[in-house]
Structures are given as structure tokens and as C-alpha cells.
Design a protein that fits this description.
The protein is an alpha+beta fold and about 150 residues long. The protein is built from 5 helices and 8 strands. The radius of gyration is 17 Å and the shape is globular.
Length: about 150
């Protein structure tokens, strides 16, 4: 009898700990379940090189990376950061993993897009360093951040 309760307790604890790995404040469990595979795919591409116009693991630009990751999970989105910003999706102020983040890095208009992964971090293909994780709290990204949209 005690062994049965111990097994139930351990199974419950495992579920709670697994859920905690992918939870960030303000994120529903349903959203987490949808985004876990997307974030896993995105993270598996860390280290892929940057290539202007690139759309494959052999080389990505920012929107090529986002498009590739979403497409792997059956989500069709526009190819350029400008068109992603101007159409489709829902603008959001409370970030959830899987949201797309938009930046003005050229001083004129939307010029960069990334995928929010939670805890103030995002994954993107940067012209310096390729696919990598960066922080929204970094001075450069704070200064150039425009907003976010949800496509999931």
C-alpha cells in the first residue's frame, strides 16, 4: 500500500517538474505544450551560420530561421520581418514562449525578427554569430525592440 502511494507521489512530482521546465509566468500550460516542440527545433539549430537570404541549416537570415522553425511544425508565416510585422498574428504585450519579437536594427523600420523562449531570452539568427540565444535586457536589444506578435 505504501509503495503504491509512493509511486503515485513520484509520478505526480515528475509531471510537476517536467511542466516547470517549460513554464514561465503568464504562460498557460496549453501554450507551453504547443511551443515545446517549436522551441526544441529552434534550439537544435544553435550554431547554424548566418547567411543573407538563407533558409536552411546551412545558413539562415533572421526571417529564414523563424520561417524554417515554424514551417517544421505546420505553421505558415510570411518570409520577411517587415511582412510578419505588418500582417498576420496578434500583437501582444505580455510575452509567451513562441512569440515573435521584432526589432528596428537599421534605424528605419522593422529589420530583425526572433523567437521568444522565456525568461527574457530569445533565439535568432544574428548577422554576427548565426543562430544563438540573446537577452532582451541587453542594451542593444532594449534600444531596438519594437514589439511582439503571436502566431501560435
Amino acid at each position: 500500500m505504501i509503495l503504491r502511494y509512493k509511486s503515485i507521489f513520484l509520478a505526480t512530482l515528475a509531471i510537476i517538474l517536467f511542466t516547470a521546465l517549460f513554464y514561465s509566468p503568464g504562460t498557460s500550460l496549453a501554450a507551453s505544450n504547443k511551443t515545446v516542440p517549436i522551441l526544441s527545433t529552434a534550439k537544435s539549430l544553435i550554431g547554424s551560420p548566418y547567411r543573407s537570404g538563407g533558409i536552411s541549416p546551412n545558413g539562415f537570415d533572421c526571417s529564414g530561421f523563424v520561417n524554417y522553425v515554424y514551417k517544421k511544425h505546420g505553421i505558415s508565416i510570411s518570409r520577411s520581418s517587415v511582412s510578419l510585422w505588418s500582417s498576420g498574428g496578434e500583437k501582444v504585450s505580455s510575452l509567451e514562449p513562441g512569440d515573435l519579437l521584432f526589432f528596428n536594427t537599421n534605424g528605419r523600420t522593422v529589420s530583425h525578427v526572433a523567437i521568444y523562449i522565456g525568461d527574457g531570452q530569445f533565439i535568432h539568427s544574428a548577422s554576427y554569430g548565426g543562430v544563438k540565444i540573446d537577452s532582451l535586457s541587453a542594451a542593444y536589444y532594449k534600444k531596438t525592440y519594437l514589439g511582439a506578435k503571436r502566431f501560435i
